[in-house]
Amino acid sequence: MNNKNYFFDTYAIIEIIKGNENYNHLCDWNIITSLMNLAEVYYALLLIYNKETVDNLLKNFNFEFLEINPQIAKESAIFRHKNKNLKMSYIDCVGYILALNNGLLFLTGDKAFERFENVEFIKA
Prior knowledge:
44% of the residues lie in helices and 13% in strands.
C-alpha cells in the first residue's frame, strides 16, 4: 500500500515511462490521473514512437482516472487565470485542482508548480 496518494501529471507519467531513476519508487503504483493527461501522454509518446509501441508501453500501467466535472473545470480556469504569468497548461491546472479536491498530492516536475502547496516536485 502507498504511504502517500498522488495525482500523476503528464510530466511524471512520461518520466516514469522514460525510466527516470528519480521516479523509480513510483513505478508500481496505481497511476491516478485524468483522461486528458492520458491523451497528452499518448500524444507526446506518438511524437517518438509508433502507435503499437505506445500501446505496449502503456498497457503495463494501472491507471485510475478521476472525473473532470463542471466545478473542477471552473476552479481550474480560475486557478490558471490567477497564475497566468506562470504559463501553465490547462491540463496541468485541471490536474492540480483534481488533486486538491481528492486529497491527493500533485506529482510533477513542472517548475511552474514548485512553489505551490500540495505538490510533490521531482525534477528529471
